[in-house]
């Protein structure tokens, strides 16, 4: 990633629709050749970022730089950027072939070249036999692939995908995720993908931009976002997480502090410069929590409770444990039918534990 | 409840069906039969088979008249289309609540009888009419223009009366057009002209066809417009039919003309039906299926 040069930069971009601030002083750099995902709940401004890059919306403030050049004056039809729309927006009165050739004709590509490029694009999305069909004669997944072919055939610098898989069913969506990844590697085009589906974001992206209320919350690799969220919003939005509120009692060394939470003293690992009396949030992924018998083990942080609810998820078993303090904790374990320990009765007394260092400690946030 | 509903359905559909049978189907059949009967000076028709009425249809002088009528109707449709299409596009650019107001204003003139409105146009176009007076006052012309009793006046009147019938179907087809498609075209490099020619126009073709249908057919029958604005020289098919029944008293010929008009109408409806059936399936028309 480090040797990549910036392709597109948003510098302090703001956008307001009738008193509603959709983007608030947003900075974002997109590198050449990466698969970047804008992730956030609906209304967080991610689609607006895409529309500003495509040229469908004009930013109120800030700059959009493509190869260091300001492209504010460039109309949408002149930008080297193509979009795959959420609804596909295939031209219903044209065949698949004509849909894909449309951009090439508009850019006055020589006739002799068009046929080869359209057929190549069709091969790429494995729809060679469907060239003469009309969009309404195709399934949702096939329409999706036509929409992708219609965009990439123009060899854009940047391909924008607006929740492009959300209309497909689960199985097809997973296939298309793999397909998109393959296409992106094969074409070496920069993809900017917008989604509210965190699972999709984690599995496809080189980098994820988590957005909320028109601001970037965190930018990082899927692993960084998942394992070291920088705030409560990111932690809660990506995956499931257990949250404990506590207070620092003393510092132990450079990266360990002692906190009091759930009525117990915990030693936790953190890089934040917390001092005594600071309020903190301690976050733990369900899969980092182990359920054990209620006997103490000094090596690990250890709390007693009872099984409140069990959810069989196929691959995993999600157990809801009500601690003696009243807090409910979710623990997710790989389901192993041969292990007698994994079969919990409701109400069974258990303990939870985890290794120091697996938790994420964040400064206390008000009003979330 | 269900039984009540069935009864209601029986009466509602039955009433409408018998109404149509009695006042549309039976008279139409009478017209059809009349067209094959013999003309009679005293009793209008004689119950004796004859093809005289249909022979008159093929008379060269009448064919040229029919051609004239068709020409005026088609020009009227073209004029309406040239006004209605840009008008509808501008309308689409307005906020939704304004569109409703403007469409309402478009309908308001219908509350006045069209005959009265054609008289008003007669006043406007006449030698001492408002248009000539204004042009003379401004000094653009020396003597009044001869506008009334011309083909121009007939087409002017027809276009005025029939314009809303062109606007409404075109507007409704534009409203159905997915705005995302225009955005996609823009994204793929299409400028405003290409977007109009390659996306908007083909996808609103059903509306254009419906509008043309709703203008051409009535335009051929509006005899009072030709009577008041065209004088004796510029007749529509409607005038000829009216004259056969009221003045010339050649009922078989008039009936044959009416049948001809019904056939023409059916043919155009069939064309339209085919066109919209295609577009319902594919969302638009193109040269390969029309």
From TrEMBL, chain A:
InterPro entries: AAA+_ATPase (IPR003593), ABC_SmlMolc_Importer (IPR050093), ABC_transporter-like_ATP-bd (IPR003439), ABC_transporter-like_CS (IPR017871), Mo/tungstate-bd_C_term_dom (IPR008995), P-loop_NTPase (IPR027417), PotA-like (IPR005893), PotA_ATP-bd (IPR017879)
Residue span(s) of domain ABC transporter: 8-238
Key words of the record: ATP-binding, Cell membrane, Membrane, Nucleotide-binding, Translocase, Transport
Catalytic activity: ATP + H2O + polyamine-[polyamine-binding protein]Side 1 = ADP + phosphate + polyamineSide 2 + [polyamine-binding protein]Side 1
CDD domains cross-referenced by the UniProt entry: ABC_PotA_N (cd03300)
Enzyme Commission number(s): 7.6.2.11
Cross-referenced SUPFAM superfamilies: MOP-like, P-loop containing nucleoside triphosphate hydrolases
GO molecular function: ATP binding
One Pfam family, short name: TOBE_2
Enzyme class: translocase
Family: Belongs to the ABC transporter superfamily. Spermidine/putrescine importer (TC 3.A.1.11.1) family.
Subunit structure: The complex is composed of two ATP-binding proteins (PotA), two transmembrane proteins (PotB and PotC) and a solute-binding protein (PotD).
Purpose: Part of the ABC transporter complex PotABCD involved in spermidine/putrescine import. Responsible for energy coupling to the transport system.
Protein name as catalogued: Spermidine/putrescine import ATP-binding protein PotA
Originating organism: Psychromonas aquatilis
Automatic annotation (TrEMBL), chain B:
Record membrane topology: Multi-pass membrane protein
Domain ABC transmembrane type-1 as annotated: residue spans: 66-272
Statement: the UniProt record of this protein carries the keyword Transmembrane helix: yes
Subcellular location(s) per record: Cell membrane
InterPro entries given in the database record: MetI-like (IPR000515), MetI-like_sf (IPR035906)
Residues spanning the membrane: 12-37, 70-94, 101-125, 148-171, 203-226, 253-273
Keywords: Cell membrane, Membrane, Transmembrane, Transmembrane helix, Transport
One Pfam family matching this protein: BPD_transp_1
NCBIfam families assigned to the protein according to its UniProt record, in alphabetical order: PRK09497.1
Annotated family: Belongs to the binding-protein-dependent transport system permease family. CysTW subfamily.
Protein name, entry field: Spermidine/putrescine ABC transporter permease PotB
Biological source species: Psychromonas aquatilis
Gene name as annotated: potB
